[in-house]
Design brief:
By secondary structure, this protein is an alpha/beta fold. The protein has 2 domains: about 230 residues, Type I PLP-dependent aspartate aminotransferase-like (Major domain) (Aspartate Aminotransferase, domain 2), CATH 3.40.640; about 120 residues, Aspartate Aminotransferase, domain 1 (Alpha-Beta Complex), CATH 3.90.1150.10. It is built from 17 helices and 16 strands. A hairpin with a 2-residue loop joins strand 3 and strand 4. It binds D-serine.
Length: about 425
């Protein structure tokens, strides 16, 4: 088994130079092929991405922006960054795009510094209710610089009540409101958020890191169509590109955003990553990607349906996007870490996750979170989701049953072998 983008000569050389790393690479390919990836923020990138990440663009320093660089030799890097920016604008209907953020946290931090002053108030979603670390969790450096206030979802519905968001915005007068999540299984009311931001005079940002590829494929709403000032997204999740981030904004914020990314936050951009992003942004404009994005949602609904048939307690009672959160403490009397480990044993990879106002700590939380972007990239459809839901339920009911786990491991392996990982030949 090998990734078809490595040449045999390169692999032979790696094997001779560093057997430990070579073996880890081979083992990771096997792990990804023989098991199913359900972490909703992970995916199998387009195979073209591997070719560019392992290319000579890795060698080039390109501080600055196309046409205004600090070092020479930029004729090819200017081409790829210009293409990446222009394609991003087309895909997301954006007035401006910055494609240099190295990943999700620096991407969001660059926005805060571009639009705000230290001490300003930012309102984002609480982490245990589906928000993200970079939206102002007290453990982050940003929380020492800006004042973050949080809105929550309702218990027990798990849904956002926009009246309460409005109330919190009126009380706290934030300069920036963030709409975005990493474990909220529902669509946002973007128009409702725009109204609240207008009422309190706040700027409005959406972090669509999980959803970027689904928005690009037309399966979910695009906050830029609802007048958002800034939209950020990582590029390696549903978008299926290289690891990285992208900032899309109105033209009036373009200068401030660009200055904040470079030289404000970062030095040399990773040009191999930007080259891979450029090709990704071409691929997500195809009909094949549109069909993929739609199928991701169809698969998530089918998976949820398979679980709900057995009365599994899902946060918000289901899903409208690519992800599902189960309260395993309520449904199965176990914590998320136990569920995660037992499911790993059968080749199903997902993550333990806090649930809204979780009484348990983050390393032993009450929930698990999973999603369908990667399984769908392998070509799996509704029948496979149903089968996986069935395997999952058996594991959650008997996480210590060694004989059962061994049997289910074989079932998962057999299923996975029918759906090769894009870019890995068996
Ligand atoms: N780690 C990503 C996620 O899993 O949602 C976000 O940083």
């Amino acid at each position: 088994m090998t990734n078809f983008t490595y040449s045999q000569a390169a692999l032979d050389r790696l094997q001779k130079t560093d057997l430990d790393i070579f073996n880890a690479l081979m083992n990771e390919e096997r792990r990804q092929s023989e098991g199913i990836e359900l972490i909703p923020s992970e995916n199998y990138c387009f195979p073209e991405v591997y070719a560019l990440l392992g290319s000579v663009f890795n060698n080039k320093y390109s501080e600055g922006y196309p046409g205004r660089r600090y070092y020479g030799g930029q004729e090819n890097t200017d081409t790829i960054e210009t293409l990446a920016r222009e394609r991003a604008k087309v895909v997301f209907r954006a007035e401006h795009a910055n494609v240099q953020p190295l990943s999700g946290c620096p991407m969001n931090e660059a926005v805060y510094f571009a639009l705000l002053n230290p001490g300003d108030t930012i309102m984002g979603m609480d982490l245990t209710h589906g928000g993200h670390l970079s939206h102002g969790h007290p453990v982050t450096n940003m929380s020492k610089i800006f004042k973050f206030v949080r809105y929550k979802t309702e218990i027990p519905s798990g849904l956002i009540d926009l009246n309460k968001v409005r109330q919190a915005a009126l009380e706290n007068k934030p300069k920036l409101i963030i709409c975005g999540h990493s474990s909220y299984p529902r669509e946002y009311d973007y128009a409702g958020f725009r109204k609240i931001a207008d009422e309190v005079g706040a700027l409005l940002m959406a972090d669509v890191s999980h959803l970027g590829g689904l928005i690009a494929g037309g399966a979910l709403k695009n906050p830029l169509d609802y007048g958002f000032d800034v939209v950020t997204s990582t590029t390696h999740k549903s978008l299926r590109g290289p690891r990285g981030g992208i900032i899309l904004c109105k033209e009036k914020f373009a200068k401030a955003i660009d200055k904040s990314v470079f030289p404000g936050m970062q030095g040399g951009p990773h040009m191999h990553q930007i080259a891979a992003l450029a090709v990704t942004l071409k691929l997500v404009q195809t009909n094949a990607h549109k069909a993929y994005a739609k199928q991701v949602l169809t698969n998530a609904r089918a998976f949820a349906h398979g679980l709900l048939e057995s009365d599994t307690p899902l946060i918000t009672g289901g899903t409208e996007n690519h992800l599902i959160v189960i309260n395993v403490a309520a449904g199965f009397g176990i914590t998320g870490d136990i569920a995660e480990k037992a499911l790993d044993r059968v080749g199903i990879t997902l993550n333990k996750n806090v649930i809204p106002d979780d009484p348990n700590p983050p390393m032993k939380p009450s929930g698990i979170r999973f999603g369908t972007p990667a399984a769908t990239a392998r070509g799996m459809k509704e029948p496979e989701m149903k089968q996986l839901a069935n395997v999952m339920l058996q594991v959650l009911r008997a996480p210590d049953d060694e004989a059962l786990l061994t049997k289910l491991r074989e079932e998962t392996r057999a299923l996975c072998m029918r759906f090769p990982v894009p870019g890995i030949e068996s």
